[in-house]
UniProtKB/TrEMBL annotation:
Pathway: Amino-acid biosynthesis; L-arginine biosynthesis; L-arginine from L-ornithine and carbamoyl phosphate: step 2/3. It comes from Novacetimonas hansenii. The lineage of its organism: Bacteria, Pseudomonadati, Pseudomonadota, Alphaproteobacteria, Acetobacterales. GO terms for biological process: argininosuccinate metabolic process; L-arginine biosynthetic process; urea cycle. It is found in: Cytoplasm. This is Argininosuccinate synthase.
Length: 409
């Protein structure tokens, strides 16, 4: 679709400098009506200024929506049922937020009769992929505008000059080179770029948004309990809480105990390596708690199969394929595994560590009569192990005989 053919576009709008420049640029370059959508995903910022900025630009249709409960219930919790970690470490805090924003953008586009959507992701990052794969999965014929891939504002200097020419307010810390870029939601915060670009140099303490340092954490452990029903946390210290409230409380507990910091060099979907500083205090606690309740409620082979699929599931989310058939298929398997994952986990939080000190469930597969070192009263016949071992050793014995005759392994 040519620029002149776009009549109305829904912009994912944060109210910051970049998306404010994009808003004005869309109005001038495309000559179209712009609808703004600002999502509250728990980033911890006041969103009304975004509404006022949009009004300043003459935007008539402005959407500012609190999606925190939807975010945690329908996106974060399903992902945590899988214990998803990208490249073994990253809890996917940015990745899991993009499909919800994109989904709501498409819904708004259909509601207001827009023929296009736009985002503020750059041409070097993963987010452009995540947004656009979601857009096309939900509305195949939608027109997508990605200003960073179109305009000639190729530097911070040019961006600031455009802002000044168009009377766009510029925060004082944006007039020079920003020290680093921050993205945040209820699950995590991430910091990238500028003074963090050298992976050999450790991050300064000013980088951290969500946690105190483990060294500054209390010298006494904080003890908590988390209750699960069918794989999802439902109560903290015996108090039933909504999904977003529970995660927020865990964030507070993680923050004061220095939990959830990660300095990661990851492989972006677009091909480059990037260094990021991530903080996921509540999510880090939740991961340990969920794995702990699974340890007594999941069958061995079910657990091992689920664990073997986790890296693929995490990669699917990282790459922006939340609405793909393969993610839905894996989600069905994961959700099926969680029917028995109910019970209570006791944890100690101490100087950056999350330590499980107890777990109990009405569905526990742990049988003290079987595992005891005392008299098990016939619950387990130790003599059965002899045949089990000999059958499993058969191929090893045959291979060893061939090896003695000079055969190759």
């Amino acid at each position: 679709m040519a620029a002149k053919d776009v009549k109305k576009v829904v912009l994912a709008y944060s109210g910051g400098l970049d998306t404010s420049v994009i808003l004005r640029w869309l109005q001038t370059a495309y000559g179209c009506e712009v609808v703004t959508f600002t999502a509250d995903l728990g980033q911890g910022e006041e969103l009304e200024p975004a509404r006022k900025k949009a009004e300043m630009f003459g935007v008539k249709e402005i959407f500012v929506e609190d999606l925190r409960e939807t975010f945690v219930k329908d996106f974060v919790f399903p992902m945590f049922r899988a214990n998803a970690l990208y490249e073994g470490q990253y809890l996917l805090g940015t990745s899991i937020a993009r499909p919800l924003i994109a989904q709501r953008q498409i819904e708004i586009a259909e509601q207001v009769g827009a023929d296009a959507v736009a985002h503020g992701a750059t041409g070097k990052g993963n987010d452009q992929v995540r947004f656009e794969l979601a857009y096309y999965a939900l509305k195949p014929d939608i027109t997508v505008i990605a200003p960073w891939r179109e305009w000639d504002l190729t530097s911070r200097t040019k961006l600031l000059a455009f802002a000044e020419e168009n009377q766009i307010p510029i925060a004082k810390d944006k007039r020079g080179e920003a020290p680093f870029s921050v993205d945040a939601n209820l699950l995590h915060s991430s910091s990238e770029g500028k003074l963090l670009e050298d992976p050999a140099v450790g991050p300064d303490e000013i980088v951290f948004q969500r946690t105190i340092s483990p060294e500054a954490a209390p010298d006494k452990a904080t003890e908590i309990t988390i209750d699960f029903v069918s794989g999802d946390p439902v109560a903290l210290n015996g108090q039933a809480l909504s999904p977003a409230t529970l995660l927020a409380r865990l964030n507070d507990l993680g923050r004061m105990n220095g939990i959830g910091r990660l300095d990661l060099v990851e492989n972006r979907f677009v091909g480059m390596k990037s260094r990021g500083i991530y903080e996921t205090p509540g999510g880090t606690i939740l991961l340990t708690a969920h794995r702990s309740i699974e340890s007594i409620t999941l069958d061995r082979e079910a657990m091992h199969l689920k664990d073997s699929l986790m890296p693929r599931y995490a990669e699917i989310i990282y790459n922006g394929l939340w609405f793909s058939p393969e993610r839905r298929m894996l989600q069905a398997l994961i959700d099926q595994s969680q029917h028995s994952v109910s019970g209570r986990v006791r944890l100690k939080l101490y100087k950056g560590n999350v330590i499980c000190v107890g777990r109990e469930s009405p569905n526990s597969l742990y049988d003290t009569r079987v595992v005891t070192f005392e008299d098990d009263e016939g619950a387990y016949n130790q003599a059965d192990a002899q045949g089990f071992i000999r059958l499993n050793a058969l191929r090893l014995r045959l291979g060893a005989k061939i090896g003695r005759r000079g055969g190759a392994l």
